[in-house]
Amino acid sequence: MKTRITEMLGIEHPIIQGGMHYVGFAELAAAVSNAGGLGIITGLTQGTPEKLANEIRRCKEMTDKPIGVNLTFLPSLAAPDYPGLVKAIIDGGVTIVETAGRNPAQVLPYLKDAGIKIIHKCTSVRHSLKAQDIGCDAVSVDGFECGGHPGEDDIPNMILLPRAADELEIPFVASGGMADARSLVASLAMGADGMNMGTRFIATKEAPVHDNVKQAIIAATELDTRLVMRPLRNTERVLSNSAVERLLEKERSLGSKLTFEDIKDEVAGIYPKVMLDGCMDSGAWSCGLVAGLINDIPTCRELINAIMSDAEEIIRRRLENMLGGKV
Ligand SMILES: Cc1cc2nc3c(=O)[nH]c(=O)nc-3n(C[C@H](O)[C@H](O)[C@H](O)COP(=O)(O)O)c2cc1C
User: For the domain that residue 135 is a member of, what is the CATH number?
Assistant: First the structure.
């Protein structure tokens, strides 16, 4: 299958693995890229330019296909060394960067000068248009279903994707709630050029996270995620657990008095404990509604191959048959 995204990024299938804190290590990114998608290393998990340079090197030893690096711009007290991380990306020969969070204008000129394609991930049509205006090459449109930060507008992809298609000129991929061939074909039908998956890629053989995390995703239904930090306008969709329920109780009881300090125990420094140690009740960790559609732990190649062949089946048989009058 060819789309504007496969052509722009030089990949075989229009499937991207979104950056994920403490999940997007070299092993997963290489496995996704080797399977014909685009694998992405999460820059801030590495933290320093030296460590990111090393992770890019490790990934390139495992694949000769294009890989990307995610750069997330979050409000934080101690800002990461973004210029250093950008230099590590450029020097490492990475050709694609996924930006997320704040407007990436500060790093754009350096990335563009190096010929790097920039996919900005955002949760609204107005932010997508802004990304297009400042020169991003593509957008990843993250609907309300998504694991992680869905923004504050709460617009699901059934509305967000056709709205993005109506307004954008640059290519975009559908993100949030994507799991299988049905997601891909529906996204293409709504005007997207491919899809980005987060949660689905955690439950794969190569995702270098504790098995407890994969089992938790398989056990979860679409009713098991919660939205936390809404009062701080930093909403995150996470899997429910005892720490998350405690956090929500604090949000309810403190109301408008809530500050980040009040919930620090449930949200700060949680990812290594969950993803590496498998301590599932340590705190809040991102997970999409799509957990309700995930029931197995395939390899990335099995997952991507199944998506592409099932998509062909849907398009050539199910939809063609309907057009041909067969039910
Ligand atoms: C565990 C986890 C960690 C994530 N960490 C990041 C991150 O550090 N930066 C980022 O831009 N997006 C992050 N995301 C969002 C994903 O890249 C992707 O946009 C999202 O998962 C798509 O929704 P889905 O989970 O329904 O597929 C994370 C998602 C998950 C599930």
Answer: 3.20.20.70
